[in-house]
Amino acid sequence: MKGSIACMLSAASSFRASDLRQPLYFTCTADEEVGYVGAREVAKRSQLYKEMLDSDTRGIIGEPTRLQVVYAHKGTFGFRAISEGQAAHSSTRQGKNANLAMIPFLVEMKAIHDETESDPRWQNSEFDPPTLSWNIGINDHTHAINIKPPQSICTVYFRPMPGQDPQIWIDRSRAAAEKHGLKFEILHTGNPFYTDPHSDFVQTMLKLTGNRTATTVAYGTDGGVFGEMKHLVVFGPGDIAQAHTWDEWIDLDQLRRGTELYARLIQRWCLESDN
How far apart are CA 168 and CA 183, in angstroms? Predict the structure, then answer.
């Protein structure tokens, strides 16, 4: 994201505001990683965002795609189930092992995982991997093996694809948690993003950026919040595999090319276009 912002600002600086025939908007958001908080506030409160919607503005989400045009990505849904027990020495009758109520819930989560992995209704070959990519974690915070764990927490993260109804799995997981006496909490939700890859906008993006075909990604972006925009793609320098690592980096050639391509897009839609 930082690389995209640098490229966008650098590209914009090469134009004079007086030459623009259409407005050039920059939207900077925060907390995308913890629930798309900034994007939600923009969509809810920003008058400029409403102006963009009213004028059918063409938009780019500047996440790292190696400068490939991305027309769709998965959503991100997370929740947790909590089992409460009471710590005690395991040699006694005292206390309550919180894991004993969590284990049957985990069995049901495994069944949900396996069902979506095998049922073609929950798969989409446009994505890699083509499934919901369930990530199920468990932690009872027990540091000694002779203590009954007083709490057990299962965290779950899954990635629905466009056209799927994630609420089905939220409701089923909640019902399973309540059946076994567990507390159930939604952590955050983010919708999938999709723009028709055959649309004039995406096809023009391909021509302007030199890409042959548009693609999809398995991660989420603020694009899921800005789904009201009719003309939107994810497009930016860098590789998602280089992000969120201890030595996060970006190739200098990606920055150079990213700046050139953003400038080309500004030229096309802000200086040459009347709409």
Answer: 18
**Cα separations (Å) of 21 from 15, 207, 266, 267?**
12, 21, 10, 10
pLDDT given for residue 34 in this prediction: 79
Given a cut of 90, is residue 126 above it in pLDDT? yes
Backbone angles phi, psi at 184, to 5 degrees: -125, 130
From 190, 208, 235, the end of a domain falls on 190
Verify that 95 and 111 share a domain, yes or no.
yes
pTM (two decimals) = 0.90
Q: What is the CATH number of the domain that holds 161?
A: 3.30.70.360
Phi, psi angles (nearest 5°) of residue 106:
-65, -35
- How many other CB atoms are there within 10 angstroms of residue 247's CB atom? 5
Burial class (CB in 10 A: 0-12, 13-18, 19+), 143: exposed
Structural domain including 110 reads 76-190
Within 13 A of 56's CA, how many CA atoms are on the CB side? 6
Give how far Cα 171 sits from Cα of 107, 161, 184, Å.
16, 17, 10
* H helix or E strand, kind and range, residue 64: none
Residue 159 pLDDT greater than 80, yes or no: yes
Strand 58-61 to 231-234 pairing: parallel
For residue 46, give Cα distances in angstroms to 52, 60, 149, 237, 242: 10, 17, 47, 27, 32
Token pair, residue 174, equals 């909640």
Q: Does 219 score more than 70 pLDDT?
A: yes
Closest CA to 113 of 130, 129, 136, 139: 136
CA neighbor of 177 nearest in space, from 79, 86, 76, 97: 79
Q: What is the pLDDT of residue 7?
A: 95
C-alpha distance from residue 273 to each of 17, 24, 76, 83, 208 (Å):
15, 12, 35, 59, 14
